[in-house]
Design brief:
The protein is mostly helical. α2 packs antiparallel against α3, α3 runs antiparallel to α4 and α5 runs antiparallel to α6. It folds into two domains: 35 residues, no CATH class; 93 residues, Alpha Horseshoe (Serine Threonine Protein Phosphatase 5, Tetratricopeptide repeat). The N and C termini lie far apart (59 Å).
């Protein structure tokens, strides 16, 4: 059973799912059987938290972003990007020490991350600011 959460829980067919995706992406998409695979409760929660994080990020509601990321990490501790993003949220809140701690852990745990140098540069700038404050 497929329900449309954006349309009062309306029952969807495979064809109407394609229409929902087309409207969301602005282009036609060929949906395959794996697109309809059931998800676990954990996967469902992580997806909902990701949606909330995106909303709060766009609103620059950094305290809410941190809370959502904390919950995501409780469900999925190895989610590398979450620790990196929480570092950015902490820094945006002026909590440079916490931001630096998250970025340090991210760089240590994921040394091959594609954005390793970018995060290292952010961490370097935050450390310089912290040194100036002392």
């Amino acid at each position: 059973m497929l329900l449309d959460p954006f349309n009062r829980g309306a029952l969807l067919t495979v064809e109407s799912c394609g229409e929902v995706v087309r409207r969301a992406l602005g282009r036609a998409v060929h949906l395959q059987a794996e697109h309809f695979a059931p998800v676990t409760n954990r996967q469902f929660l992580v997806r909902m938290l990701a949606n909330l994080k995106g909303i709060y990020w766009r609103q620059e509601a950094w305290t809410k972003v941190v809370r959502v990321i904390d919950r995501t990490l409780a469900l999925h501790p190895s989610a590398a990007g979450e620790r990196r993003d929480r570092g950015a949220a902490w820094s945006n809140m002026g909590r440079l020490d916490r931001g630096a701690a998250d970025w340090e852990r991210y760089l240590t745990e994921f040394p091959d991350a594609a954005d390793h140098e970018q995060v290292r540069g952010q961490l370097r700038r935050v450390r310089q600011k912290l040194a100036q404050l002392n």
